[in-house]
Design brief:
Strand content: 5-15%
Largest sheet: 2 strands, antiparallel
Number of strands: 2
Order of helices and strands: HEEHHHHHHHH
Oligomer: single chain
Shape: extended
Structural class: mainly alpha
Strand order of the largest sheet: 1-2
Distance between the termini: 49 Å
Helix content: 40-55%
C-alpha cells in the first residue's frame, strides 16, 4: 500500500482471502485515482478539504454509517446525518477564543488523529467527546493562530545592493554588448 501511495495512487478498498490450507493470504487492493476521497467528501458533505483530511473524515463517516446500522440507507442521507450529529457538534464545541487557530475541517481531522493516538496509548477505544476535551486543553490551547502562521508580511523592504558610497565606474565592455545579441 505504501508503494502505491508513493506512486500517487490511493486505495479505495481491499479484499483479503486466505488460502484453503491457511499458509497464504492474498490481498487485492482496489486502486482509485488521486483526489477520489476529496471529490467524494465534497459531493457528500460540501466540505472542501485536502486529500488526507478527506480520507480521515470519510473513514469516520463510514464508521458512523456502520455504527448506526444505516447500511441500506442512501449515502447522502447518512452523510448529512453525520455532518449534523458528529462533525458540527465537534466544531461548535471549540471555545470561541480558539476558533481562529484552525479551519473547522482541520480541527475535526486533528481531533480524530488525537483520538487515534489516545486509543493507541490506552489500548482501547476513546470516546470522541473525551478526545475533543483532551485535544482542546492539551493541544489547541497551545497552538498559534492559523492566520498568524499563514499571513506573511506583505510590505516592501528597501535593500541596498550597491553601497551608496561606492564609486560608479562605467563599464566600457558592458556598453559594447547589446543584450539582443545574447538572446
Amino acid at each position: 500500500m505504501q508503494r502505491l501511495n508513493a506512486l500517487g495512487f490511493d486505495i479505495g478498498e481491499m479484499s483479503i482471502q486466505a488460502a484453503p490450507d491457511g499458509t497464504r493470504v492474498s490481498i487485492q487492493p482496489k486502486v482509485v485515482d488521486a483526489g477520489h476521497h476529496q471529490r467524494r467528501l465534497i459531493r457528500l458533505t460540501g466540505l472542501d478539504v485536502e486529500e488526507n483530511q478527506a480520507r480521515r473524515l470519510l473513514n469516520d463517516l463510514d464508521e458512523f454509517r456502520a455504527r448506526v446500522s444505516r447500511l441500506g440507507v442512501d449515502e447522502e442521507m447518512v452523510a448529512h446525518e453525520w455532518l449534523t450529529r458528529v462533525f458540527e457538534p465537534v466544531v461548535k464545541a471549540i471555545p470561541y477564543d480558539l476558533r481562529a487557530k484552525l479551519e473547522p475541517a482541520e480541527v475535526f481531522h486533528q481531533v480524530l488523529e488525537h483520538r487515534w493516538y489516545m486509543s493507541q496509548e490506552r489500548g482501547s477505544s476513546v470516546p470522541l467527546a473525551e478526545a475533543l476535551t483532551s485535544y482542546v486543553n492539551d493541544v489547541l490551547r497551545h497552538r498559534r493562530d492559523e492566520a498568524t502562521i499563514m499571513g506573511p508580511p506583505t510590505e516592501t523592504l528597501a535593500l541596498s545592493v550597491i553601497p551608496e558610497d561606492a564609486p560608479i565606474e562605467p563599464d566600457a565592455e558592458a556598453d559594447a554588448v547589446d543584450w539582443r545579441d545574447l538572446v
